[in-house]
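Sample pair:
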Amino acid sequence: MQEFLEFTLGGLSEGMVYAAIALSLVLIWRGTRVLNYSQGGMAMFTTYVALIVINRTHNYWLGFVVALAAGLLFGAIVERVVVRPVERKPPLNAVIVTIGLLILVEGVAGIIYGGGFRSFPPAYSIRGLSIGHLALGITANGVFTVIAVLVGAAVLGAVFQYTAVGLRLRATAFNPDVSRLLGVRTGRVLTLGWALAGVFGALAGLLVSPTTFLYPNSMDLIFVLGFTAAVIGGLESPLGAIIGGLVLGILLNYVSGYVSSALVDPAGLVILVGVLMLRPSGLFSTSTVRRV
């Protein structure tokens, strides 16, 4: 029973990292029907920015805020400069462009920062928490991870639901052509969506790097698992992204704890293939496919 509790709570913090990546993918997919394959590379780069700021100022929270701001700016620039020129082109163009951007970002990071592994400081202690003699299987930093992603998702949900900006974001995601006719500046709205996705990607990089180390390819597997979480929840659903991340994180922690840690990565890919084969619209999606 104690092992079950440890694996479950440990999976929560890991799942929230996948959920953050999944949210960034959902934000972009809803508005542009583009899967940003460079999201992991962008997250990695902003984490390097945070590390530089932290090392120079010895202030973790300043680095944290600067990385989120860098993610916001990076996402907006990518949409304006890289994605917009292929917006009306065949879907394969956007796939090739974002994959090319991933290779470019990782290459530039290797040139600037080198290819070696770097440790990234956690916000809080990475020692396991316990109640008396009962180990909980989660650290104080893991609790922070869960809270940070939930707060970010709650703020995003409030923006979507209760603000004029959120209404424009939802309208543009549902039907950009009609929104444009109604006076919505869809170009700016799409840029904002990519910028917000950049923030969530940066958040994922900040939260996962203390346990995985930081290097140019450090976010590649995290991106794949985040994409798996998005597929589980349905690429249309921000709530589904959170649920998908939690489900995936807990399942993979069970695999690691009860079977073997060497099977975690293959298990993630098996789950991805299984969902794509059985329910490609996602386990929590109720929407039908629409054409834009």
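Residues 2-218 form one domain.
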